[in-house]
Specification:
Number of strands: 5
Low-confidence stretches: 139-144
Order of helices and strands: EHHEEHHEE
CATH topology: Heat Shock Protein 90
Number of helices: 4
Number of domains: 1
Length: 146
């Protein structure tokens, strides 16, 4: 049976920690520690990008987050009313270019695309919706081989 959790947070940098804590607490007992870490990184990156680039400074806007844990995967849905941004169409800067130019950062979306098994985006009724899915790791069989 699927377990679901949700939170709405004001889109401000100081709320990123509360979002991460919310995810950690919801994920505990529903995901392995490694997957908790990786998906927390993804959630943080998406929320940080919304806060930095999606909303005009000084406006109090929100980020809605829904989590769904089932026997096969975790699904994170992030909804905001910020500027349209389809991360699936974003082409990250080549890492060699980043190194040559001494640019620190700019790896967030690349990281999200690498970690998640599936990502969906849609813009509907003035809202961005990003869905990140991570399949649960299959545990190796502990049965002895003969």
């Amino acid at each position: 049976m699927a377990k679901q959790f949700s939170i709405t947070a004001v889109a401000e940098p100081q709320n990123l920690k509360a979002i991460r804590v919310f995810f950690e607490e919801a994920a505990r007992g529903n995901l392995g520690q490694e997957d908790i870490y990786y998906m927390e990184v993804c959630l943080n990156e998406i929320c940080e990008n919304i806060i930095r680039h999606g909303y005009e400074e000084g406006k109090e806007e929100t980020i809605n987050i829904k989590l769904r844990f089932d026997e096969n995967s975790v699904r994170i849905i992030v909804v905001d009313k910020g500027k349209p941004f389809n991360l699936l169409e974003y082409e990250p800067i080549d890492t060699q270019t980043l190194i040559k130019k001494g640019i620190k950062g700019k790896l967030g979306i690349r990281t999200v695309k690498t970690i998640c098994d599936k990502i969906y985006y849609k813009r509907l009724k003035g809202k961005n919706q990003v869905v990140m899915i991570k399949n649960r790791r299959k545990r190796p069989s502990t049965a002895p081989t003969q």
